[in-house]
Amino acid sequence: MQSPLMPHLDAIRARFAHVETCPFEGPRVFFENAGGALRLKSVIETSAAYAGYPDNQGRDNAASRALMAAIAKGKADARLFLNAPEGEIFVGESGTEVLFRLIRTAALGAEDDGAMLGSTLEHPASRSAMARWAEVTGRPHILVAHDDATGTVTPEAYAEKLTPDLRVATIVQTSPVTGMAVDVARIAAMIRKAAPDCLIIVDGIQHASHGNIDIAGYGIDGYAISPYKVFSRHGYGLGWASDRLTGFTKESVVGGSPRNWEQGTRDAGAYATFSDVVAYFDWLGGITGGGDTPRARIESAAAAIHDHESALMGAILKGEGNRRGLADMPGVTLIGGQGEGREGVVSFTLDAVPARDLVAHLNARGIRTHIRLNDHYCGNILAPLGMESCVRASICHYNSPAEVARFLDAVEEVAG
């Protein structure tokens, strides 16, 4: 398999913890990245260091000033990563909490009446927040139907629901179940043309580790990611809000800055670990394409990641060498079909083996995957297909062709 990352794969894998071995179960292939990516070793070291600092922010001492500098650097690095020169960067409890806060602020700050628009492809984080605040504000929550066959939602499908009275709209950039990407820039432009004042919030949680993020090019008002899905750690979410959305009334301490999205003392280590993530992208871009600026190198890294993962996913679906891919194995059903646009995820079923048993079989062969159920998390995708469950295999750019081969061999044992 050829990709721009192959000559550097050993160096890439060396920067992550537990690449080949689970600390509880021993050697394994990690194909559960959509549930949380591997952690950078630098993130682990930074987390430990900041967890030990007793000092607080806003004090007249060197330690406090160092914490404030780490926060400022983290925000500046996040702007580079997101390509968001304007607006506000903030951290919250989780990506889900950040989406809820962005959507709540938009729904309460927007002009009265009108409608709120989302899609059936969305994760319940954004869909639930939209439903909640549509009900509170007395607006209809209109849902654009995704296409079951392709596992995505198209700009054309959004176009059928666009009206001038839209107040808030949400877009999921990549489905965590089907793995299919969505054309955020085009959909946002169509919404903006139909309803210029509509506030647009994007769920970038699944997309962030797989492709480039260009907030300046999207024309949106809010964006959320979960850093533990992009090589950082649990315990915080990262959000961006436009100047217009930031100008709305938010929950805040009386007398505080009206631009402040954060409540209480935030963990400086969260910002510091996100700086580690951005530094990794900068390094990766430097060895795979280069560029004269950190942003250019981040874009180079994103392009190389996309190409490498596309090659891996192509092998998973269509096979490589004398191995069959999932698409050619008898009894396999691919959710979203074989279409273009997958970002790191393939969900599938096997007629002869229940999903739970197949996950257990793969785990016994040292391959970590995950079962997705027809529940409040995945029912929007599985229920229309008449499925009660499926297996989700999710890769990242540090995964190798050899790991894909092990996965295919293990599935072939039961498919054949």
TrEMBL record:
A single MF term (Gene Ontology): transaminase activity
PANTHER family documented for this protein: CYSTEINE DESULFURASE (PTHR43586), CYSTEINE DESULFURASE 1, CHLOROPLASTIC (PTHR43586:SF8)
Protein name (Swiss-Prot/TrEMBL): Aminotransferase class V-fold PLP-dependent enzyme
Keywords: Aminotransferase, Pyridoxal phosphate, Transferase
Residue span(s) of domain Aminotransferase class V: 29-407
Pfam families according to UniProt: Aminotran_5
Keyword Membrane: no
UniProt keyword Phosphoprotein, yes or no: no
UniProt source species: Albidovulum marisflavi
Protein origin, superkingdom: Bacteria
